[in-house]
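Below is a filled-in request sheet from our internal design queue. Each sheet records the structural input a requester submitted and the sequence that came back. We keep these sheets so that new team members can see what a complete request looks like end to end.

REQUESTER: design group, bay 2
PRIORITY: normal
MODE: inverse folding
CHAIN LENGTH: 231
BACKBONE (tokenized):
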């Protein structure tokens, strides 16, 4: 796309399949314990509560923490709600590592290579740097840069997070595009001056539905995104 130098990608749900990774970890532990647990409900509550706690961090009512710490704190709450799992401290620490071995959607690796031939392509995420580095290595993909909001001192969807990130990459907001499956993230990026590239989500989750008509690019999948961005 003319005038665009930088693409910054949301990754949790957009690129990385957090649902499969976390549900598999919970399911395996439940099987080991010989109990039945709704792993989908457990993991959706895990993610939802992490974002609720992140909102408290952004509001200044909770100390500054990264996503690893927030995910781990939520597990302490879930341990009380799911007593049958008998989650020890070691169990909780082990479960928390599931976020570090997320896979990617099957059409993404080849599309990423195509996009990097024309654009600077980076992660911009509320997840920790450790999570996205480990999961990228796990999935066998690489990026031009890895930017976690924990490095910026401000979390998305604050405008400053988007603006700081792209300027670190040598671009202005109007020379940059945020790519995600979550309309609220993209609307916040647009308010910060970036263009928005929407990719249809593979799985529905919190934040994956909403109005998309204002976005500059609407793609069915990552191959379609690469096509529409001239790669």
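RETURNED SEQUENCE:
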């Amino acid at each position: 796309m003319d005038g665009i130098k930088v693409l910054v990608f949301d990754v949790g749900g957009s690129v990385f399949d957090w649902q499969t990774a976390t549900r598999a970890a919970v399911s395996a532990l439940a099987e080991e314990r010989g109990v039945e647990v709704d792993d989908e409900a457990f993991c959706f509550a895990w993610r939802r509560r992490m974002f609720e706690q992140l909102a408290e961090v952004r509001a200044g009512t909770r100390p500054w923490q990264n996503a690893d710490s927030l995910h781990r704190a939520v597990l302490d709450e879930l341990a009380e709600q799911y007593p049958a799992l008998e989650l020890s401290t070691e169990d909780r620490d082990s479960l928390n590592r599931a976020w570090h071995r997320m896979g990617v959607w099957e059409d993404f690796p080849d599309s990423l290579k195509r996009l990097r031939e024309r654009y600077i392509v980076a992660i911009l995420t509320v997840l920790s740097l450790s999570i996205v580095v480990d999961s990228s290595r796990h999935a066998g993909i690489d990026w031009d840069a890895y930017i976690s909001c924990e490095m910026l001192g401000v979390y998305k969807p604050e405008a400053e997070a988007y603006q700081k990130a792209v300027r670190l990459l040598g671009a202005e907001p109007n020379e940059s595009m945020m790519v995600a499956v979550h309309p609220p993230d993209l609307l916040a990026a647009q308010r910060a001056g970036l263009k928005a590239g929407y990719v249809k989500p593979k799985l529905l989750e919190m934040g994956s539905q909403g109005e998309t008509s204002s976005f500059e690019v609407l793609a069915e999948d990552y191959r379609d995104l690469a096509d529409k961005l001239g790669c």
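SHEET NOTES:
- Residues 99 and 133 are 11 Å apart (CA to CA).
- The mean pLDDT is 96.
FILED BY: M.R.
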